[in-house]
Amino acid sequence: MAILYTQLLKPSDLQILACSFSVHGRVLSSEKKILLELRNIIQKMPDRVQNVLYDYKYGDIAIFYIYIINDVIYALITDKNDDAESVMKYINRIYSLFTKFCVERGSKPYTSFEEVLRAQSDIFNSKSDVFETEEELKMAKDVCIQSLDKVFKRGEKIDNLLNLADRLKVAAQSLQRNTRRMYYQNLLEQYSLYIVFALIILLVFYFFIR
């Protein structure tokens, strides 16, 4: 999940105190429509209950998150990967830093907090990218392990097939020898009388000639 845009507003008049696009969200900086849609959703919220995380899907492009605490609206635009737990961690971090900023800001305008928003969203996204990369690597590792397991199992099946093929080959050779032997035996049985008569005739001729 990536934080694309962060906006802090006053609930009373929806004045924007500070806002910033992250590096991931710079592509949205020229998309006025999505920012108008976020503002319309905030305006139309019937009950702005504090300490409740609201989420609204913006088609298949993004998700709006809105959270109100201590009379400040924290509005976010994230990518379409829904992760409310991570969003709350980010909001709590921004809330803590903004509270400290308000105590120490003196005459500084609220807009000077935008550098903090930009930095924090980029830090969050970089950690999220690392986490997602680790998850992808873990998934790839699991897939490799499963593939290797299948290969090993397939290897066992191949070995079984090879052993079966060897046994079939031996059986075929034995059958071929037996068939050949039976063939000759049948020939011998079929022509044995003729062979005996032929031998007798040969013997008779032999004795007469002698």
Automatic annotation (TrEMBL):
Among Gene3D superfamilies, the record links this protein to: Longin domain
Gene Ontology CC: membrane
**Pfam families tied to this protein:** Synaptobrevin (PF00957)
Q: What are the protein's UniProt keywords?
A: Coiled coil, Membrane, Protein transport, Transmembrane, Transmembrane helix, Transport
The V-SNARE coiled-coil homology domain extends over 129-189
> Which regions span the lipid bilayer?
191-209
The organism sits in which domain of life?
Eukaryota
Q: Which GO terms describe its biological process?
A: protein transport; vesicle-mediated transport
Q: Establish whether keyword Glycosyltransferase is in the entry.
A: no
The answer to whether keyword Protein transport applies is: yes
- Protein known as: Putative synaptobrevin
